[in-house]
Design goal:
The complex is a heterotrimer. By secondary structure, chain A is α/β, with parallel strands linked by helices. Helix content of chain A is about 45%, strand content about 15%. Chain A has a 5-stranded mixed sheet with strand order 2-1-3-4-5, with helices on one face. In chain A, strands 11-10-14-12-13 form a 5-stranded mixed sheet. In chain C, a hairpin with a 5-residue loop joins strand 6 and strand 7. Chain C starts with a strand and ends in a 5-residue tail after the last helix. The chains are: A alpha/beta, B alpha/beta, C alpha+beta. Chains in contact: A-B, A-C, B-C.
């Protein structure tokens, strides 16, 4: 493959385009509400009506507003057809003919879409995730070509460093710094790993990105491999994501076929392969050291850092591990320049963040907003607030590692530091809205039950500590706990946080600590008199 | 100086801790000059008196009587000491917890493993009802001091009592803290 | 080989390059409690008892895996660490059935000793009383899961020293349990060489020689060091 061939593929794909396209969401959420059959039926109707040469029906990735799925979009007007079913799909045809259509339509100017900014999701809902040609026609792999032929690895790392990109897996470690650490490590082999073991309850950002735009991750990983000097990549993805796995497999096969993975990519002196490793359902395998153990074929348990993976990773070799969303930012940053990227977001948190908006909110789905957008803008304007005029009580971010932010702090701009100040964290991007009927102690217990079940059992504070925290929370909810138990709970949370071996245990008490910090009265009202 | 009102109580345990108490031998005579024994399995009295200063409690809480009695003791006593491993952590008494609730362990002991008297049902009219779970004392009432051991040997008991009688805090360390 | 100077609790001590805080502390006669650490086996940093405060880190660091660096200031006995260590022991005592009075290792148990040393006089958590099995299918040894603290010394000694890898851990969280081969009875294990090293290194009464009664289990902990010395340095001395 050379540049001319790439451009030819792109040109050929563009010539194939029909004047009007109906984009039908085929990401997991809409697929589970039958969008594949809807797509097939619509295609058949158009063929029967002899419209097949004017209108094309294309399966695309996530269109964002999951609560109104199955979603389809008219490429000319940009309007979205909501809650389409096999029974009303003909209505779309009426709309195309300018007749009155009984399907609910949402304009692209709706606040849900208007307030967003798509960098990670730039191709999401626009391209066919199962077609490499579709990705190439949208500018795909050109950046990789430019990197391989016009930039040195140092220049790539510099660009990423200057952009201010930070790890999207939750902790927010500067990506450029991580890359330069791996690049500087001297070893005969190096690895690049994409962490797609998204396990937080309520989070589906990585899944959507992989289902919607798998080539972008492959391209991002390949650029990273070039920058740090790696020859082998792994995408560690959880087994619960069959659709994302199958799309990745397709994408890797296509990229290999075109010579975009393998030996001498774009005829440069650079080889890179990517293999999938499928997780067997352990949350802890999202923790990088446990993840590497799992890739090596061992029991997925974490080990103490340092040494960090950048120095001592897979089989002892330097390893770069980034999250899906981090890799998804690489291509846009290189393509548009670090300056462009660093102008988006806040002082210390650059770019955008994808959130999986869920819970007691009118519009749930996948959104991407610039860092610094306030929580209020996200939940009230984009999310449309609590249905039936309910009131927001709290917003949970960061899943079982995060915390609950009270409604009084809704005007906080979303970035890494401000969320930590509120006792929560960015996490990978789950955002669950809770209304005033929510019992915050129950919320804490829910997440603690999750952490307790997902603890690997290696270190004592996490294995037994989370169990005891859960036990005390149950006692509190049953009205059996005293002030003494409550003090014990606080002590235990602090201890588990400070003494656990890995991030799972270290962050597991956060839902409890943040609800105690912001909603202590709820705990106190449930306590009984001391013995 | 008034004598300290002293009590010892035997809940669900083997009485080994009380036997160990008797190992204090002639020091018991010294003790008797400082304390007045107001309630104990060593004495013949039925009711736990008010205003007890110090009480050693042997055994775990295994039945309803233990439970209510312990609550009563707490109300009537200034300083409570968990006396021995059963009081502290359930020890052997609590091994039945492994087999599930009260009925399960009764069935196991009196029907499955041996059934000499052809028991079909347990008559709780004559005895106190078993709790579903044997529990250490501090899960039920506030305990002031803990004296581990199965049984705690006489030296340990003496150390604790001497300190408490002299209004000092008994800080048990090293071997004095050994369980078992 | 270069030498590092650093301090533990204000006491200046020296260490060889590459030594861990724990090794240097033990050489200097400073006590740092451990349970999962065993001389000669890889360190896994799992029990968290050896956590210390280190001047160049905001987080507590395990002494068993943290290498000494020049000028490092270590605190190994702050009130906070003492409290956390007690909590760890209490959590261990509450999660399974550690009735010392009826244990083969009574008087020879590292968990029991640490509870004493660290001043654990009672357990603040509800005892769980799980109903765990005892496997005496092996002709020489037995395992009582009620006493197991999941330190994985047996797993490591079997893998790293004996080379059999009979032991491993199954399940997760509170359900984690050590298993032999593919979770079959020990006596049916095909990989077990009956060498008994796992029994030697077990800190509690979980792994025992069959036939020993309460408080009778004696474990020669120096035996493993003897084997390693013999193997690595060809020195057959005890």
């Amino acid at each position: 493959m050379d540049l001319a061939e790439l451009l030819e593929i792109s040109e050929k794909e563009r010539r194939k385009k029909k004047p009007l396209e109906i984009h039908c969401c085929v990401a997991a959420s809409c697929v589970s509400s039958n969008s594949q059959s809807i797509k097939d039926k619509l295609t058949e109707i158009l063929r029967n009506q002899n419209l097949a040469d004017k209108v094309d029906v294309i399966g695309v990735g996530c269109l964002g507003l999951c609560s109104k799925g199955p979603l389809l979009r008219n490429s000319q007007s940009g309007e979205f057809y909501c809650n389409v079913s096999l029974d009303n799909v003909e209505e779309i045809l009426k709309d195309l003919k300018g007749e009155k259509c009984r399907i609910e339509k949402i304009s692209p100017d709706d606040p849900f879409y208007k307030k967003q900014m798509h960098i990670v999701l730039e191709n999401s809902g626009k391209i066919d995730p199962e077609s490499i040609e579709s990705y190439i026609a949208n500018g795909g792999y050109i950046t990789l070509y430019q990197v391989l032929h016009e930039m040195t690895p140092q220049e790539v790392i510099e660009e990423i460093t200057k952009s201010g990109l930070r790890g999207r897996g939750g902790a927010g470690y500067p990506t450029g710094l991580k890359w330069s650490l791996v690049a500087k490590s001297v070893a005969e082999k190096k690895f690049v790993v994409c962490n797609a073991d998204e396990g937080d309850p309520g989070a589906f950002m990585d899944r959507s990105v992989l289902e919607s735009d798998p080539h972008k991750i492959i391209e991002g990983m390949t650029i990273a491999a070039y920058a740090v000097g790696a020859q082998q990549g792994y995408i560690y993805i959880r087994g619960e994501y069959p659709l994302a796995i199958s799309r990745l497999q397709t994408a890797i096969r296509q990229a290999k076929k075109y010579g975009l993975l393998g030996s001498q990519i774009f005829e440069a002196n650079f080889d890179f392969k990517i293999d999938l490793r499928i997780g067997a359902g352990a949350f802890v395998c999202g923790e990088e050291t446990a993840l590497m153990q799992s890739i090596e074929g061992k029991r997925g348990t974490p080990y103490p850092r340092p040494p960090y993976p950048a120095e001592y990773g897979l089989w002892g070799y330097p390893t770069l591990i980034n999250n899906v969303e981090t890799f998804a930012n690489v291509v846009p940053i290189i393509r548009n320049g670090s300056e462009w990227f660093s102008k988006i977001g806040t002082e210390n948190s650059k770019g955008t963040k994808v959130f999986a908006l869920a819970g007691k909110i009118a519009r749930t789905g996948l959104i991407e907003v610039p860092m610094g957008t306030t929580l209020r803008e996200i939940v009230e304007e984009i999310g449309g607030g609590v249905p039936n005029k309910g009131k927001i009580k709290a917003i949970q971010t960061g899943g079982p590692s995060g915390g609950c932010i009270p409604a009084s702090k809704l005007d906080t701009p979303v970035d890494y530091e401000s969320l930590i100040e509120l006792g929560s964290m960015m996490g990978s991007g789950g955002m669950i809205v809770m209304d005033e009927n929510t019992n915050m102690v129950e919320v804490a217990k829910f997440f603690m039950e999750f952490s307790k079940d997902e603890s690997c059992g290696k270190c004592i504070p996490c294995r037994a500590g989370t169990y005891e925290i859960h036990n005390i929370l149950s006692k509190i909810l049953n009205g059996e706990a005293t002030q003494y138990d409550f003090e014990k709970l606080k002590l235990l949370c602090k201890m588990v946080k400070e003494t656990s071996l890995c991030g799972l245990g270290q962050s597991a008490p956060n839902p409890v600590l943040s609800t105690i910090m912001n909603f202590e009265d709820e705990y106190l009202s449930l306590l009984k008199e001391d013995i | 100086m008034d004598k300290i009102k002293f009590a010892t109580v035997w809940l669900a345990g083997c009485s080994g801790c009380h036997m160990s108490f008797l190992d204090l031998d002639e020091w018991l005579i010294d003790l008797s000059e400082k304390v007045e024994l107001v309630f104990s399995p060593f004495m013949d009295n039925k009711d736990y008196p008010d205003g007890v200063d110090l009480c050693l409690i042997e055994g775990a809480v295994a039945n309803e009587e233990n439970y209510h009695f312990l609550k009563e003791i707490r109300k009537k006593t200034k300083t409570l000491v968990s006396f021995g491993d059963c009081a502290l952590n359930g020890n052997v008494t609590a091994l039945r917890n492994l087999h599930g609730k009260a009925d399960k362990s009764l069935e196991l002991s009196y029907k499955k493993l041996v059934n000499l008297n052809n028991i079909s049902e347990f008559d709780y009219n004559s005895i106190s009802k078993l709790l579903d779970r044997v529990r250490p004392l501090h899960e039920i009432v506030k305990i002031d001091y803990f004296l581990p051991g199965c049984p705690p040997d006489a030296a340990r008991i003496k150390f604790l009592l001497e300190k408490l009688i002299n209004n000092e805090v008994p800080e048990l360390q090293g071997q004095f803290l050994k369980n078992g | 080989m270069s030498v590092k100077t650093f301090s533990i609790d204000g006491k200046v001590i020296s260490a060889k390059e590459g030594q861990t805080i724990l090794e240097a502390a033990r050489d200097a006669g400073i006590f740092i409690p451990t349970l999962c650490h065993f001389p000669g086996l890889t360190n896994v940093g799992a029990c968290r008892l050896c956590l210390v405060e280190v001047s160049n880190s905001s987080k507590l660091q395990p002494a068993c895996t943290t290498k000494v660096s020049e000028g490092m200031e270590v605190r190994s006995n702050s009130e906070k660490l003492k409290e956390y260590r007690k909590l760890i022991i209490e959590l261990l005592l509450s999660e399974r059935n550690h009735q010392c009075s009826v244990c083969v290792a009574n008087g020879n148990c590292e968990l029991q000793n640490l509870a004493m040393t660290l001043g654990v006089d009672h357990v603040r958590f509800d005892f769980r009383f799980p109903n765990l099995p005892v496997d005496i299918s092996h002709e020489l040894f037995g395992i009582d899961h009620n006493r197991c603290i999941l330190c994985t010394r047996c797993v490591r000694v079997c893998d790293e020293i004996e080379g059999a890898h009979t032991w491993d851990v199954a399940n997760r969280g509170a359900n984690a349990i050590v298993i032999t081969d593919m979770n079959q009875p020990w006596g049916e294990s095909e990989s077990c060489t009956s060498c008994g090293k796992c029994v030697l290194v077990c800190p509690t009464g979980a792994l025992f020689k069959r036939g020993v009664s309460v408080a009778e289990l004696q474990k020669d902990k120096s035996h493993l060091e003897f084997i390693i010395q013999a193997r690595v340095k060809k020195q057959w001395i005890r």
